[in-house]
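Support case: zinc ion complex. Customer-provided input:
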Amino acid sequence: MTWWRTEPTNGSADDVADALAQPTALVLRATIMGQLRLESQRKSPNETGGVLVGYVDENGRTVVTAVVGPGPNAVHSRSRFRRDGDYAQAEVDRLYHASKGRDDYVGEWHSHPDAGGPSFIDRGSMSWISNNPSYGRPEPVLIIMERVREPEWCPRAYRWVGRRLVEVGASVTVTGC
Ligand SMILES: [Zn+2]
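Agent response - structure generated as follows:
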């Protein structure tokens, strides 16, 4: 499972100790997590998703600053999702310019309304992205929103490293939003 360290933390002492033992690979604001839950719930029981925009900080952590939704021409079904590529590209470009070149594509997100971890197809698409120079992200991140029970969504964070998808520690910041 992904350890979501909340800053400031409000879990039990054991939760905090376990979370601190995991290096934080991904950081996002609580408002962004709220957006992911809202979008996932809105399209449920079909899948939805989009791309993650942000930057890599001096510690190598991926900081997600914006979520791009599926777009008007996305394909949603119970077990498949294909985002609207033109929409994603236009939104990434817009966010890149709005941040004066700091924020760019960092990875993908999508929902699994029937729960379950990354599929064979998910691994294949992350591998393809990591090898595609136009993305400029050899180690893209992936957030999967798993519906554990209605209407609860469990976020899990991954990163494509080398030749495989590894689950990573993540942190939600509630300050500065
Ligand atoms: Zn999937």
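The mean pLDDT is 89.

Case will auto-close in a few days if no follow-up is received.
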